[in-house]
Amino acid sequence: MSRFDILLADDDADIRLALELLLQDAGFSTRNAASPAAVQQAVAAKQPDLILLDLNFSRDTTSGGEGLALLPELVRAQIPVMVLTAWGSIELAVQAMHLGAWQFLTKPWDNQQLLALVRQQQQLTQLTKQHRQLTALQQTPAADWIAQSRPMQQLELLVQQVAATNANILILGENGTGKSVLARRIHQLSNRSQAPLVAVNMAAIPETLFEAELFGHQKGAFTDARQARIGRFAMAEGGSLFLDEIGCLPLVLQPKLLRVLENGEYEVLGSSRTELADVRLISATNADLTTLIQQGQFRQDLLYRLNTFVLELPPLRQRPDDIAPLAQHFVQLFSRKYRKTAARLTDQARRQLQAYHWPGNVRELSHLLERAVLLCQHDRIDDVGLPSQAQLKQQPAGLHSDAPLDLNLQQMEQRLIMQALQQSEQQLGRAAELLGLSRHALARRLEKLQINLEQI
């Protein structure tokens, strides 16, 4: 993540140097500007997170006119500005505040006070960015939610019924079936739709950062906690929290999540104050949680809190009536993304899609059509680039195979990972997408299962 970027705008080189040494030593990134024109050039090159602005750039000038003239332009660009002014220029600072400056500080400044104000703005900037991301997420329609087949229409009826409640929901389904899309659909139909939907990939969170990620931390709560961080529960306040891959949550961490679900209480790391969470929980997994409970890897009382209502997403091979409309949706989506004229799927291409068994489900369909759109040279797609006929006839021995299940869960997981690695030609990113995992989560599984890529 890039460091907090501060533009130091002052004609006095000594002042700029003093600020630069102080702020860089505190972990911030700084740039310099010695004139209003230099400020404009620096902002045009890269918009800073904060500007420390002197109002007087010309030697022996005390009117503040140069800085005040620059302020409206910076405020329109939504850049926070902290004005630096001499003791005798408090009226100028007040005038700057009226023009939109965020804060002012007098020269000579107190180092600790300056750093405290900068860190305060850093946290405000972080919260603003998170709010924009969450707002964009919740306003993004669940366009991938297509329910023309009978199984999906039945599921849609259940979704309509349960979305309006505050009941916790557990979504089950194979990798790539669209569990995150269903979570967004539930949120948008709920009475919490105007509040954030926050997604967390449980498999991607290291055990040591679990509490900090979910509950947040204060500055100094642990070695690398240089500034406070808001947790996912607080980010989702009043809205919905989507815990993806809940079956990957280590057993040692499950009591920490259970406590929040039981009484809504948690503590921010480094704080003794108990916070109350107001979130609607949506969880998802492709694992058999009952088997994990029997193996001692998942708590039964946690499952009871998660599965107030269970929704099961059917694999794509069981909803053939949705394949064509989903395919057309992805063609249009990727045509817009790559600025290409939307192509038409020919009857031949549609027959190919209908004949395939889709082990990777909707995610595989999406990747396949993205590639087809990129390679399309005309206004139609005749060949969607399915695997060879030999591969089509060889049904993968995954969870949906008719072969007898004489493997334990770890062996099955290892087999699925091996298949994904072979299908993706050992490209970890592509294999992770096929498995519905993050690249980091797949790497952890490879290490856990002692899978050596050189032996595949």
From TrEMBL:
Any GO BP: phosphorelay signal transduction system
PANTHER family, alphabetized: ALGINATE BIOSYNTHESIS TRANSCRIPTIONAL REGULATORY PROTEIN ALGB, TRANSCRIPTIONAL REGULATORY PROTEIN
Keyword Transcription regulation recorded: yes
Protein known as: Sigma-54-dependent Fis family transcriptional regulator
Residue span(s) of domain Sigma-54 factor interaction: 145-374
GO molecular function per UniProt: ATP binding; sequence-specific DNA binding
Gene3D superfamilies registered for this protein in UniProt: 1.10.8.60, 3.40.50.2300, Homeodomain-like, P-loop containing nucleotide triphosphate hydrolases
Domain Response regulatory: start-end pairs: 5-122
